[in-house]
Sequence to fold (116 residues):
Amino acid sequence: MSNSDCIFCKIVAGEIPITKVYEDETLTAFRDINPVAPVHILIVPNKHIADNNDFQPEDEPIAGKMFSLVRKLAESEGIAKDGFRLIMNTGPNGHQEAQHLHLHLIGGKPMAHPMG
Fold:
């Protein structure tokens, strides 16, 4: 299931070129085109889910796969030991820019603490 206007659905469908780091029947992961750190990977479900509010009980296995993939990618990118940040934005007040659920995996340098 996809949304023809969604940039991430177009990426999953192969219509927009990206630097893919992982793909299976459930998830696609690729390097962010505007990285904020040496490692900045987006993990998206292949199924169009607009945001966390659109997540349904039948989608729970997708969340599990996303977090299992985080561990694998962090290890393969060499950031697991020193740590990384995970960010998932929801809605306009949460600064969600693309209306397709996605998880940012960010690491490779010390990050400023978000609370000061």
Summary: The chain is about 20% helix and 20% strand.
